[in-house]
Amino acid sequence: MKKIIAVVLLAVMMLSLVACGGKNDTVTTPTLTYLYNTDDNHKAIGEYLLSAFAAAGITMNLQNQEWNTFLNTRKNGDYSVARNGWLADYNDPICFLDMWTSNSGNNDVQFGKGEHADLKMYSIDLTPYGYSDKVENGTWAETYDVLIARIKSCTDSTNRYAMMHLAEDMLMETGCIVPLYFYTDLYMIDDSVNGFYSNPLGYKYFMQADVAGKTDTISVCLASEPDTLDPALNSAVDGATMIAHLFSGLAKWAQDANGNLVIVADAAESLPEGVVNADGTVTYTYTIKEGMKWSNGDEVKASHFVDAWNRAASAELGADYGYMFEVVDGYGTDKLNATADDAARTITITISNAISYWNELLAFPTYYPVHPSAYDNEAWATDPSTYICNGAYTISAWEHDSVITLTKNANYFDAANVKMNEIKMFLSDDANNMLSNFKNGSWLLIDNVPTNEIASLKTDYADEFVIAGQIGTYYVCWNINEDLLPGSDLTGVEKEKAQQEIRNALALLIDRNYVVDKIAQAGQVPASSFVAMGMTDADGNEFYKNAGDSADYDGYYDVSADAYAGNVASAIETLKKYYSNITD
């Protein structure tokens, strides 16, 4: 589905740029700062970008921050350009697109925020898809937000996927999202470990693991100190892995008898089909298992789920993933259309329309219940003494910045089928430290290795060095409110159109094959779009193969090795239009 509309929009943008004159002979390139978090691989990519930009006359400095500080800096928009990565939350392209609405907590680019909130330069026409929405020169909220809302309410598969391509077109035209590669999941696991599995979202599961037949304890390292282990507030993969061991939602990821990953009932007795109502909404009724208890012995009630959902979706909490409840009827009001009958152990919830990924949402941490005590104690999720959960494990000890110890929960309804008794989650963001502890046998799984060790590890630890499939994209993101033309005569919409062209030109300076082959070295695929490979389209092909407007390559860039020299030449010519110090 190569889209003619994208070509037309690009042509209009280019004519506009020519008309406005573009270059001011006194304007030189600003000095950029590239923000990354402590990791050899991230640093190496940053150093490569610095050299690639410098070859074109652009100065960029590197700034390193500790993981949680880095996340908050990016989230608050206190940066110019930063490394980023996004893993699928469920198997539908919308999870790569809805994060960029103006109200999303994961909108690190700041679309529709700050100065960008009032910029009227975007257009949509959804009349070909059966909607009345047609906006010319609207704000991000008036266009992109509306588009995402229509996608989420659309039940016509062909139109829905077509509109998702329009959404990605809008994102990529801004130049604020610069894909580098599609992820793989690289980790090392000792060959004594059995029963471990992971899912395509990057979560790792140790409940059924043993170490050479022993089930007393296992020591692993996924990442550094988590920012939060509150299911509603967490937005990190390592945090989600811990939370999946600590809580039981209505559904969960599991392995079937053949080793295939499936979504199955967890706290719910079953996952029934929904009932379609006359207005197109869909109502689901769940019965939670009898006799479930919280880790402190309290009864798990149906109302605990509903109350937790309303908390997670509330504007008051401001959770990054609060928008995951947009599909639920009543979202955006004081209360979701969800009720509980504690005596009957039933939960009734109505969603706005049928969606294929509903059960996957139920398995996502944001949909997990929390104990009522969490509502009166903001710090409940930082201390083992107040961390009450209902999953396979509890937190028995937490030495901050050192190790979190998970111990089998005697009150868990399925405790008899949990094999591993204790999981020690060591906390580190030092890849060299991780590898040293793996080599000496202290840690039996590590989720990162030093970049300069990858080649030898593939040979020396061939059975323990794992490259698994993962649905995600590693990318560079720009703060859309960053001024790339300080001192220019351009203002407002014309300036932002020029900055779009600049950002897209800078994206062409990056040799993605070099990044993949020389730095990442873990089977990653150069990325030509934001929605990751592995996501399917309406026609059964991969979504990214239908992205963009070129008949010669997939996506928005030609990322083949042969195209790189031409990409750079094109980028230089564009940058020379705006900056006086750019040379061939």
What does this entry look like structurally?
With 584 residues, the chain is of the alpha+beta class. The protein has 2 domains: 4-182 and 470-576, no CATH class; 191-427, D-Maltodextrin-Binding Protein, domain 2. The chain is 27% helix and 21% strand. It is built from 14 helices and 23 strands. The protein has helices at 4-20, 40-54, 67-75, 94-97, 140-153, 157-174, 237-246, 302-313, 358-362, 431-439, 454-460, 492-508, 512-520, 564-576, and strands at 32-37, 60-65, 81-87, 122-125, 134-138, 177-189, 193-194, 197-198, 204-205, 210-211, 218-223, 251-255, 261-265, 275-276, 282-287, 338-341, 346-351, 393-399, 403-408, 422-427, 445-446, 465-478, 525-526. The strands form 6 sheets. Strands 1, 2, 3, 6, 11, 18, 19, 20, 21, 22 and 23 form an 11-stranded mixed beta sheet that branches. A hairpin with a 5-residue loop joins strand 14 (275-276) and strand 15. Helix 5 runs antiparallel to helix 6. The protein is globular, with a radius of gyration of 24 Å. It starts with a helix and ends in an 8-residue tail after the last helix.
